[in-house]
Amino acid sequence: MLVLGVLALAALVGWLYLALGHGGFWRTGPGLPASSDPGEWPDVVAVVPARDEAAVLPETLPTLLDQGYPGEFRVVLVDDASDDGTAETAERLAGDRSNFQVVRAKDRPEGWAGKVWAMSEGVRAAGGPEFLLFTDADIAYAPGTVTSLVSAAQAEGRDLVSQMATLSVRTGWERVIVPAFVYFFAQLYPFRRVARDGARTAAAAGGCMLVRRAVLVRAGGLAAITGALIDDVALGRLIKRNGGRCRLDLSRDVVSRRPYPRLADLWMMVARSAYVQLRYSPVLLVGTVLVLLLMYAVPPGAALAGMVGLAAGVDGAVLPVAAGLGAWMVMAATFAPMLRYYRLSFVRAVVLPLVALLYAGMTVDSARRHYAGTGGAWKGRTTPR
């Protein structure tokens, strides 16, 4: 019981730090400030890399084309070797709009990740706008969102303004996995630290990234992150480490229309990049799994084992009960705002330890896939290490 109690106490200390000293990672607001007129609205070109996205484009592309941005706004969709009629679908949806262009990506050079190469093809076709908006084909925008992004960038002097899209929670597995996915991302990259000048934390959300083109060019352009499988975090780091000022928020105005109806779909979403995030390091993999077990599995395990011990009159059972319950409660309290954001019951916070164990399994499977030669597989294409 003593060992279990000490482990539970260590978890409690860890959770108190995360809750009070880790950049307020659990906060879900306030979002972008209200739009203000900068006087002269800069040119913006949205770059949409798309591979086999014909099915989702009718739900998303019109929302981007109909933004009503006060300045010059164009959309460049890059067809990345699709075989489902993505380019033709996009052209049909755009009709005779003069602010829309389809670019068919050239063959991907060796060493380039597929999405980053498609993004670079879009940048090449974009010309010289002041801002580039990198966005995904499955992202739908509320009217005026581009205006809000540019307004925030201009008013605050930001070089990267990114919005994490609200993901689908329609199915049972989505409701289990998605809020935790966003929660864990924010835990790794607290949004307030991303926005803090001088802080090392840097990240972005790939579904919506407004970037000042001059700063991107100064940083070496997308050629500086050619092989990045996690392109959004890589871009955020590139901009910030070259003196750029960044901002990252959650957003209800930016919504992913991509469904993940099965556990297998969600599992793949995480497993394809988890080991990449750990820089393919077995040491980091083992450390990550051990930390997940300590922080998420030990508190409920210690609390339940301690209660059994108390009932049986075992000495030293009070510590694992008190520390385990305390850590479990703090954990649940930090997860509650994310559940509220996704309009889900707080009761789900109690089972976060089980979800964390699923994520541990996904992370281990990500390493397995890497060593099996299938790591980073996405839409029929494997990105090499």
UniProtKB/TrEMBL annotation:
Any idea what this protein is called? Glycosyltransferase
Q: Which NCBIfam families match?
A: HpnB (TIGR03469)
Its keywords, alphabetically, are: Membrane, Transmembrane, Transmembrane helix
Record carries keyword Transmembrane = yes
Annotated Glycosyltransferase 2-like domain ranges read 47-216
TM region positions: 278-298, 318-339, 346-364
* Organism (species): Actinomadura meridiana
The record's listing under CDD domains reads:
Glyco_tranf_GTA_type
